[in-house]
Fold:
Amino acid sequence: MKVSVHAVGRMKAGPDKELADRYFGRFSKSGPAIGLEFAGISELPESRAQSAAQRRADESERLRAQIAPGSALFLLDERGRNLSSEDFSQRIADLRDGGCRGLTIAIGGPDGHDASLRESAELVLSFGAQTWPHQMVRIMLGEQLYRTATILSGHPYHRA
Structure:
């Protein structure tokens, strides 16, 4: 199953980008052995629409245009479910084992995701009740994808 990340906004060069790239790199190397191929990160600029609602709608439409047919969608959103690493890994494994060909995990812009996009997502996920900067979310997502590969392969990286 191909796993791609969609992000509204761009990461600038620096230590946070290097750390995110390190975890995504680890995932891209460890994922194929367990049927997870990292398809990369697509970055789209923030919408310049007047209102927050218009920006969310515009960004959601651009995301929908990038999702391949037959792919599942996970959204990172503060209103989402807070899953353990094991539960997150199991959700990905269930999609893979169920024949899903692709998974897009989306990080929204400063205004979040459009309600219609949240309703159509396979999973709306939160990394906790606090609000995190975009750069930190990328790092945490990269680490959790790498952790998923280690959990599903039985590697000792994840110790509960």
Q: What stands out?
A: The longest helix spans residues 134-153. The mean pLDDT is 94.
